[in-house]
Amino acid sequence: MSTIIDSGRVAEHNAQLRAGLNADYEALGGMLARRGVDIEKLTAAAQSFAVALPSWGVGTGGTRFARFPGRGEPRNVFEKLDDCAVIHQLTCATPGVSLHFPWDKTTDPAALRQQAESHGLYFDAVNSNTFQDQAGQEHTYKYGSLTANNAATRAQAVAHNIECIELGRALGSKALTVWVGDGANFPGQHNLRGALERYLGSMREIYAALPADWLMFIEHKLFEPAFYATTIADWGTSFACAQTLGEKARCLVDLGHHAPNTNIEMIVARLAQFGKLGGFHFNDSKYGDDDLDSGSINPFQLFLVFNELADAAEREGAAFKPAYMLDQSHNVTDPIESLMNSAVEVQRAFVQAQLVDRAALRGHQEANDALQSAQALKHAYRTDVSAILAMARLRSGGAIDPVACYRDSGYRAQTAEARPAKAGASGSGIV
Ligand code: LRH
Ligand code: MN
Predict the structure, then answer these.
(1) Residue 241 C-alpha to ligand 1 middle, in angstroms?
(2) What is the pLDDT of residues 66-120, one digit of tens each?
(3) Rounded to whole angstroms, how far apart are CA atoms 185 and 174?
(4) Is residue 220 in contact with ligand 1, taking CB distance under 6 Å?
(5) Mind giving me the DSSP string for 176-192?
(6) How many other C-beta atoms can be found within 10 angstroms of the C-beta atom of residue 166?
(7) pLDDT digit string (tens) for 310-347?
(8) How many CB atoms lie within 10 A of CB 74?
């Protein structure tokens, strides 16, 4: 695997921090052993954990008000892949990259695939985009795409999704994520049932184009860009559509796509119970679809989501493999630092959930001992597993402290040199 950050520099960084890590690891190991937990098992589990990166997340994001580009912004999918390679090299937790078309369209998918493989990366689910009009596009998506009244507009949106499948196949991807912003801003603007019927008609055509070993992820979202009714607004609608479409259709849970205070971990439990949990877009939020760094606002919720995933894995075994992906927008931080931190926070929630004594928890639940049941989760959540995550990185060839190592490397300064800012790069919008 070719590395982007000089591996000697990473080794030097680790050498400085190794003694401290060994002491912390030993202390944690001792504490866990007294709880009957083998720290080596957890570290191995952490080493096998993977969450995919959003190609659109390595550029600086923005809001509808403004975008303030950072230094050394990636200018094309190949440079985005380089940045993803840096994140994976230092965290060893992000081997997958989720592409977005047409933002990441390339005339040379073989070269892109080759570049990815040279960095130990693969392509996770690809994302279609019928929430923006492209230059020269015949039919606008202003009034919807897969749900549009105009049959030619729907056909155009279906054709785009099928093209995404073809591009994804050339890159070795095995899934298509379909998020549409289709909806209405006024009561009466469209027939609520009619819109969903048109959606299902379009999705059936896309479903029919899926290769046998592919999955389709339906991503729901409560609102934005539509502000009165969104066609696929909640998990219930997504679930009903996935049931209707067939075995290969699953539901994708973007943590930021729910009303404040929604019990997202319960949605996860439900979708897992009914075999329709396809995957996640991890991020965090305080109000709306804020796309903030995972674990930065409500880390306990992230832990509770992974607690439900651990429960499902205990029930269904190795076959239970939802797709883990980040989907964030980095407006005020270096995107590479935010994505590294977020990957580690998702990995942290995964490891903490492994610490839940599920047999003891079941005992408390069956005894209606609410307090001890809650404490069984809190006990795991309160355990600082940082030493396990760092040891997993060290053993996998990464950096004990990815952000510090990245800053030491001067990578951002190098890219600022190599990638002069595009004129008029400010503007607005998420990417
Ligand atoms: C919609 C969404 C979707 C992506 C987009 C970049 O809010 O979460 O997953 O296509 O962000
Ligand atoms: Mn998303």
Answers:
(1) 19
(2) 999 999 999 999 999 999 999 999 999 999 999 999 999 999 999 999 999 999 9
(3) 35
(4) no
(5) EEE----EESSTTSS-H
(6) 12
(7) 999 999 998 999 999 999 999 999 999 999 999 999 99
(8) 20
Query: Is any atom of ligand 1 closer than 6 Å to the C-beta of 179?
Result: yes
User: What is the residue with the minimal CA distance to atom 10 of ligand 1?
Assistant: 179
Distance 241 CA to ligand 2 centre (A): 18
Residue 428: band (very low, low, confident or very high) from pLDDT cuts 50, 70, 90: low
Contact 309, 271 (CB under 8 A): no
Q: Is 101 in the pocket of ligand 1 (CB under 6 A)?
A: no
Kindly identify the ligand whose nearest atom is closest to the C-alpha of 100: 1
219 Cβ below 6 A of ligand 1: yes
Pick the residue whose CA is nearest to atom 11 on ligand 1: 327
The single-letter code of the amino acid at 33 is: A
Cβ atoms of residues 221 and 255 within 8 Å: no
- pLDDT category, 421, cuts 50, 70, 90? confident
